[in-house]
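Data availability (excerpt). The following record was deposited with the supplementary files.
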Amino acid sequence: MAVVYAGLMALGAVAAWLATTRRALRQARDRSDRAWTDIDALLRRRHDLTAQLLATVAREVPAEEHVVGGACEALDRAMAASSPLERTEAERRLVTALAGVAALAERHPILGGCGEFVEQQAQLADVEDALLAARRIYNADVRLYRHRLQRAPTVVLRAEPFPEPAYFELDHTRELGVASPWARATLGPGTA
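Predicted structure:
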């Protein structure tokens, strides 16, 4: 009889461990999903501000329509991307296009003196700062989730789909020599 009780206790312990593992996986998945929602909201805000900025540039410097047109195209692609992997590439292209727009302020002093343009730059810098912080949180949550996925027993993974999310990288644009043109470090003194 003691053997039966010991067997039942062992079976109960295994069942409790599996349930705890499944709950931990769900929590980690939900945290990464919530973190992605924060990034998504910030990217939408960035896209709105970028559209406003491009409208300002098009109005103030109509001769540079090819630069604005390229940035608008990159913005459209970034807005259409959905997954973190697609967004990473689309946002990289958008940042590259925006670097060309930022360079217009140096070539056209009228643009650099436009209060609306300067305010939009400052707002974009705020969004960039928030986006970098949100990306760090998201990637940390994804790292924890992936770690738990690797440690989870196969029986837990078969019972419920636990997809492996992708990291969201923005810093790889620096490898190409193109950092965000709106980051605080590139705006210079007095514009933050």
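Summary of structural features: The two ends are 75 Å apart (CA to CA).
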